[in-house]
Amino acid sequence: MDIHGASAIVTGGAGGLGAATARHLAGLGVRVVIADLAEDGGKRLADELGPGARFVRTDVTDEASVQSAVDAASELGPPRIAVAAHGGPVAGSRVLDRANKPYALDVFRRTLDIYLVGTFNTLRLSAARMAETPPLDSGQRGVVVNTASIAAFEGQVGQSDYATAKGGVVSLGLVAARDLAPLGIRVMTIAPGTFFTPAFGMREDEAQERWGSAIPNPRRMGRPEEYAALVAAIVDNDYLNGEVIRLDGAHRFGPR
């Protein structure tokens, strides 16, 4: 897909996987909207990337907020790419705690709202704008890349809400790809494994020592730049559609 001069919206674009993606796409000539709640980081990255980038404060669970980011992308160029790479707080707890008290329903709902509903919100509003964009010579109008997790397949103890949300993102991908196929809009899903991002709250060497040895090959945590490179490969290859790609170094969570 010819993307030079096109625009992209990247949710969670101020840090981690999203920031790496925004940088990579900008390097390919794409004009990028950094959609995030983190104003300081988002503005710094937009300044770093130059006039082809814009930060838009965005709450992925709010329709008007995401629509504003989509509108901003349309002002930068033909909207061809949407990447849902946002994160959010994950409390994490067993269905019943040690005192047999059930996991808080409002926390479960909030996690689904951020990771699943927020992803669908980004998908639907971005696709609606892409549908208004003239197709390329290939017949393609754009591509949406959603972010799941290997927890969607092998969720761990205490991940009931997160694994459920990411499992929903996986299930969404093929259905959305088929829904949007007549419009020339593709939908792909990346399921990352254990990636080092600032969210770990520790130095990378400490995180690698703690978690990196569990990865079969390469024996380290993933890097955000590797996620970004896969996004770019998906964008480039029109025949990738409706599929989930695990990006995890052959890591498989086992029972604990």
For the secondary structure, the number of strands is: 7
Supply the number of helical segments: 7
Average residue-wise pLDDT: 95
The named CATH superfamily:
NAD(P)-binding Rossmann-like Domain
Based on secondary structure, the structural category is alpha/beta
Order of helices and strands: EHEHEHEHEHEHHE
Low-confidence stretches: none
Principal-axis shape: globular
Structural summary, described in words:
InterPro entries: KR_dom (IPR057326), NAD(P)-bd_dom_sf (IPR036291), Sc_DH/Rdtase_CS (IPR020904), SDR_fam (IPR002347). One of its GO terms (molecular function) is oxidoreductase activity. This is 3-hydroxyacyl-CoA dehydrogenase. The chain is an alpha/beta fold and 256 residues long. The protein has helices at 16-27, 39-49, 63-76, 105-131, 160-180, 204-211, 224-236, and strands at residues 7-11, 31-36, 53-57, 79-84, 142-147, 185-192, 244-247. The chain has a single domain, classed as Rossmann fold (3-Layer(aba) Sandwich). It has seven helices and seven strands. It has a seven-stranded parallel beta sheet with strand order 3-2-1-4-5-6-7, sandwiched between helices. The chain is globular.
